[in-house]
Amino acid sequence: MKNMDKLPHLKRMTFLAEVKEEEMTKWYNTDLGRTAEVPSACMISNARSMAKVSALFANGGEIDGVRLLKAETVELSRSEPTAKFDFILGM
Questions:
Q1: pTM above the 0.90 mark?
Q2: Distance between CA atoms of residues 68 and 70, nearest Å
Q3: Domain coordinates of the chain in residue numbers?
């Protein structure tokens, strides 16, 4: 792709697609791995932040008195997923 340097997120995604499965854990523990934006595969967190995300969904999109998600969005997240090919994960 021309001018890929102008689109660093595409460069990261292309790199991710070339990484072999057994190298994934090692790769995710690098600066590049932690900054890659792969919505279908990335979530780097600790137990406290995972609990907050879970509480957000359990409380219908609101946490600590602040609404972060519409109730409709929470319901949509509970719906049947679509089975489409993921070009990043290759499956």
A1: no
A2: 7
A3: 1-44, 45-80
